[in-house]
Write a structure and sequence with these properties.
Layout (H helix, E strand, L loop, with lengths): L2 H16 L4 H12 L5 H16 L10 H17 L6 H7 L5 H4 L5 H7 L5 E5 L4 H8 L2 E3 L9 E4 L9 H4 L3 E3 L2 H10 L6 E4 L6 H9 L5 E6 L2 H13 L5 E5 L12 E7 L14 H4 L2 H18 L3 E11 L8 H10 L3 E3 L1 E2 L2 E2 L1 E4 L1 H4 L4 E8 L1
Parallel strand pairs: 5-6, 5-8, 6-7, 8-9
Antiparallel strand pairs: 1-3, 1-4, 2-3, 9-14, 10-14, 11-12, 13-14
The structure holds S-adenosylmethionine.
């Protein structure tokens, strides 16, 4: 495939993005449209070129053609890959993230900014029973070394379309970022328990909880989106995860059930700052108002689910963002309003922890945990 076809196709998609389509949606649409007409390697290169453009966006010259800007971004990426320290921390602080971020975070580590400019890796989560077989079948699987409980997490370094592989189609693994997998491990549900995955979405974490529970016990999986719950059911069927019940819930005071749970996970909607390495376009579309509006939603969600945690049960709050208002401030407000809960261990910390992209080579995530006294 020629470089010019990659640049032209990337430029075409960038025009769509300029017209208002988010980059990941435009790329998904392109993947679907060209699935039967273009080579997988070309589609991969086009996706990479589009994301690279947004990663280096503030280094580019807007009056150049889009093709030239994409080429300049790819050159910067290659240069950064060869010698990351060639780009000074001050330049990263000024150009890799929007200016408003400094006011929203307690500190912006230089190593995190450097990580944002690296190309992200791909993580998969195998079912507990299948992890050795999945790694053998896919090959090119590097086990995660970052956490002892992560025998089922692998970094995939190959080039196959994973969705077309037999182990995927038979439900033996999912594509799931390591940070999301760590949220499942922070919950650490036991077989036979009753859990509520209150913002279950398409079920990434529901399926992980189900596997950790060995399909025993019950998980209520709720979301306000019918479409996402339909997708959850499809994925759960493929993974043969049966110990769940899907229910619509709009996050309001009227709960989907009166059940008292051993554990409740609130994997809340958030501004997604922790995903900016994987989705660099979001750096330039997310606004401070998103942070403040979502913080209100997050606080309401926690307030509404808290009465459903049984005595001795745990409440886990997770967001793939790093803004103070959505992380430590939410935890502090909950602590102040709920003396009937006490901060609980979350990995090596008590109460809450931040998973940084540069430490785990994955999305950034904030996780807080409480136990009802
Ligand atoms: C971070 S995503 C969940 C991802 C999912 N847990 C997973 O692992 O795949 C947040 C979810 O919260 C849902 N949501 C947003 N606002 C909500 C609300 N007010 N009440 C209930 N769910 C809400 C969204 O539909 C979305 O699916």
């Amino acid at each position: 495939m020629s470089t010019s076809s990659v640049l032209n196709e990337a430029a075409r998609i960038l025009k769509q993005v300029r017209a208002g389509t988010p980059a990941d949606a435009a790329l998904r649409e392109n993947l679907t449209r060209t699935r039967h007409t273009s080579a997988p390697a070309l589609r991969r290169d086009v996706s990479r070129a589009v994301f690279t453009y947004f990663r280096w966006w503030r280094w580019l010259t807007p009056r150049d053609s889009l093709q030239n800007q994409v080429q300049a971004a790819l050159d910067l990426q290659a240069r950064f890959h060869r010698s990351p320290d060639a780009i000074k921390p001050e330049a990263l602080a000024a150009r890799a993230v929007p200016d408003w971020l400094a006011a929203e975070m307690d500190a912006i580590p230089a190593a995190w900014l450097q990580q944002l400019q690296r190309e992200p890796v791909l993580w998969i989560r195998a079912k507990q029973k299948s992890s050795a077989a999945v790694a053998a079948a896919l090959r090119d699987c590097v086990p995660s070394a970052s956490h002892p409980t992560l025998a089922t997490a692998f970094r995939y370094t190959g080039t196959s379309d994973l969705f077309l592989t037999e182990p995927f189609q038979s439900g033996q693994f999912e594509i799931q970022d390591l940070a999301s997998q760590l949220v499942g491990h922070a919950c650490a549900p036991q077989p036979g328990q009753t859990w509520w995955d209150a913002c279950a979405g398409e079920g990434g974490k529901t399926m992980h909880l189900s596997d950790l529970m060995q399909n025993k016990g019950m998980i209520w999986a709720s979301d306000r989106s019918k479409r996402r719950l339909a997708k959850l059911k499809e994925r759960a069927a493929r993974a043969a995860a049966f110990n769940y019940r899907a229910a619509e819930w709009d996050g309001g005071a009227k709960l989907p059930t009166k059940t008292k749970f051993d554990g409740v996970l609130v994997d809340a909607p958030c501004s997604g700052i922790g995903t900016w390495q994987r989705n660099p376009h979001a750096r330039w579309t997310t606004q401070p108002v998103d942070v403040s509006e979502l913080a209100v939603v997050q606080q309401h969600l926690l307030e509404h689910v808290a009465p459903s945690v049984k005595s001795g049960g745990r409440l886990i709050y997770a967001v793939c963002t790093l803004a103070r208002a959505e992380t430590s401030a939410i935890a502090a407000a909950f602590n102040a309003a709920h003396p009937e809960f006490e901060p609980a261990p979350v990995f090596a910390a008590v109460g809450s922890t931040t998973l940084w992209a540069h430490e785990i080579n994955a999305n950034g995530m904030f996780v807080a945990a409480w136990r009802r006294k």
